[in-house]
Amino acid sequence: MNSQTEPKILPNDLPAHLTQLGLHAIASGCDDFIARATKGRWSAHVMLEELARAELEERAQRGLARRLQRSRIKRFKPIADFDWNWPEQIDREVIDRAFTLDFIREGRNLILLGTNGLGKTMITKNLAHQAVVAGHTVLFRTAAELIEDLQVDSPELRRRRLGQYTRPHLLCIDEVGYLAYDTHAADLLYEVVNRRYEQKSLIVTTNRAFKEWNEVFPNATCITTLLDRLTHHADVTVIKGKSYRVRESEQERAARRSKRCPKKTKKPTSRRS
Predict the structure, then answer these.
(1) pLDDT-derived band of residue 62, with 50, 70 and 90 as boundaries?
(2) Which of 110, 132, 159, 241 has the fewest CB atoms within 10 Å, measured from its CB?
(3) Could you count the other beta carbons within 10 Å of the beta carbon of residue 44?
(4) Tell me: the pLDDT tens digits for 226-255?
(5) How many CB atoms lie under 10 A from the CB of residue 86?
(6) Residue 129 CA: distances (Å) to CA of 61, 100, 101, 165
(7) Interatomic CA distance for residues 200 and 103, integer angstroms
(8) What CATH code would you report for 79-248?
(9) CB 95 within 8 A of CB 123
(10) Closest-CA residue to 74 (of 121, 116, 110)
(11) What is the CA radius of gyration of the chain?
(12) Beta pairing partners, 173
């Protein structure tokens, strides 16, 4: 009669087996986990609870990193650095309310309208980051990047890419109006807005008033319908003022001039008694 022995897992093999099971957090700190369990005399129940907690935390971190990478937000200044006193007009209440992310849960849109250099992109990227941290899927693209991505000859490839712009909980389209496009570009933008209409949220930044969008997309027949669907369930906030970037550039130039030409201090004149 052949006796069957149970397969043994050598200590050096344990991290590899844990990794195969998808237990990456415990696999990377296996020795430390065992040491803490031994020192604390954990029961089997406590050990399983600690294992589950560590794995959930690690998966949440990996999920956050993955969503951030896919969002294409890239670098941005934190909203704490935003100078609310610089714009001549800004509806802070609307923007503060947007940071609650209720508009995403309600499938509403947010449109930031204003001239260049007033922080529209900065606000948008901070909102996008907040949404990612809250567990939402996000995609940030400029209007030029989005339209170029969709201008492909293959109808099948275009459908797949339209799907990529339809799926995220929040789609941010930056800089609409900075360049002029043809009628086909307007149709592609309309298709994106239409697919998300009353379903998922958009943030759009533009430097052109809606009445000027016909100049951005000349001869496009879908502009009226596009704007109707974009603004139907939306908060539109207008930001007015001078470019903050111009102000920063002027301050930097002044600082460089002062370094090159330091002010000479007058020597005190000696007084004779």
Answers:
(1) confident
(2) 159
(3) 8
(4) 999 999 999 999 999 999 877 667 667 767
(5) 16
(6) 14, 12, 11, 17
(7) 9
(8) 3.40.50.300
(9) yes
(10) 121
(11) 28
(12) 141, 204
- CA-based nearest residue to 82, from 111, 116, 118, 113: 118
User: Cβ distance 208 to 176 under 8 Å?
Assistant: yes
Per this entry, what is the length of the chain?
Answer: 273
Domain boundaries, the chain: 14-43+52-70, 79-248
Write out the DSSP string of 19-41. HHTT-HHHHHTHHHHHHHHHHHT
| More confident site: 255 or 160 | 160
Check residues 185 and 24 and name the one with the higher pLDDT.
Answer: 185
Cα–Cα distance measured from residue 151 to residue 161, given in angstroms and rounded to the nearest whole number = 10
Residue 33, Cβ neighbours under 10 Å: how many?
A: 19
Residue 273: pLDDT band (50, 70, 90) is very low
Q: Are 86 and 241 in contact (CB under 8 A)?
A: yes
DSSP string of 156-184, one letter each residue: HHHHHHHHHHHSSSEEEEEEETSS---HH
Long-range CB pairs of 86-90, under 8 A, 24+ apart, other chains included = 86/118, 86/119, 86/241, 86/244, 86/247, 87/114, 87/118, 87/119, 87/239, 87/240, 87/241, 88/240, 88/241, 88/242, 89/238, 89/239, 89/240, 89/241, 90/118, 90/237, 90/239, 90/240, 90/241
